[in-house]
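ugh ok fine here u go
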Amino acid sequence: MEARVSQVTFEEISASDFFYRNRDIAGFSNPSRAIFAAIRELVENSLDAAESIKVPPDIYVRLSLEKGISKDTQIYRLRVEDNGTGVPPRHIPSAFGQVLFGSKYKLKQQRGTFGLGGKMAILYGQITTHRPATIISSTGSQRIYMFKIMIDIQRNRPIVMDRRIFLNKMGWRGTVVDFTLEGDYFRAMPKILEYFKQTAMVNPYANLTFVDPKGRLYRFTRATTVMPDPPKETLPHPYGVDVELLQRLIQMTPHRNMLDFLRNHFHRVGEKTAEKFLEFSGIRPNKDPKKLSHDEVVTLTQKLKEFNEFLPPDASCLSPLGEELLRTGILKELRPEFVAVHQRKPSTYAGHPFIVEVAIAYGGDISSKGNQFTLYRFANRIPLLYDEASDVSVKVINSMNWRRYKVTPDMPIAIVVHVCSTKVPYKTVGKEFIADRPEVRREIANALREVARQLQRFLSKKEHVNRERKRLGVFSKYLP
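structure:
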């Protein structure tokens, strides 16, 4: 009997085709998560667009019901408007219709990571409703551009269905994204409203307006126009370089000797440091980097990690919120009786700089959750609302001896943890929780201890005042 040999077919798929087949890894796993993820990604793009030109963001989000499919799933129209930088017309189709195309591949702190989110929302909308997305944008020039686009999933290319130009008589600048998607708003509603509240907390300089499918208006008004300094672009640090990145740098470099290559392509590497490193690694300073063999590149990568005289990364590529702005946001949204805020000095993990900011708020409008603290987690000013139990912050909080600070979990206490970095150590593409890196854990723990000590002093003073008040109350009974 002749054995039948099966043929194995190999094929290449595009980036958009990959995310079409695996959309849950980007947070679009079901209708309720998808509608939350779409709003979140587009709002964060809008915040970045306004902050990049130092303009306090004004963002308007409207979600309206188009038609019902079933009891749990409906078709919605999502419209997000901002006053950001706008998108040049030649880039609009690719910026919204090509997965992994965008402006978020520079080495600096930013909300987006992969150039995925906004496009994934549009791709999900196209998959579930088969309708084009409408993009309207202007950079403040004399013209406003409108595109209707769809995504060619197999080729990862935008398909322009319609293109129009309007006169910009009012000098408007910004972007409007309008498309339909399948979703379950009423299941997602608590998370969406919480997302807006927390976004307003950690962006107190932004105006956020949300109109839900029932026409209910939620407005979060800015408390200040002061904004954090925008992050600067930076070069990769030697400790954070891998073989692939090193090979890319070698391919693109115009420099023909290793000394100039190191000085011009790595963060905080001057001439003396470069000379010391080359001596340490046994490489001639005048060697052409393009003539390094693959094995030499691998060895060079290892030596970069082993050399201990590189300066640590500086924090100019980071944009922490700052203690005053974080305090302003907490007072605006939580209205506590007491708040303590602490920002740690810049630190690094695997060559990536990061800063931890922590706050603890007590009393006021904060209610007790019973046997656990209320925790608000943020990364690069993004609220993290899912998978709380897996986050490094929870592990740090659970490991602390709170009784030492005269604090118990049943008190009306909220803890805020913000981590900003050029590369936040997320565990998933969906950006839901921060991994347990020892360096990040240590900085969160040290910051928590500092704000816990401040809360302890406040509670001690409050207890003392209450005792004195009771004592005076007893004496007053005997006064004439």
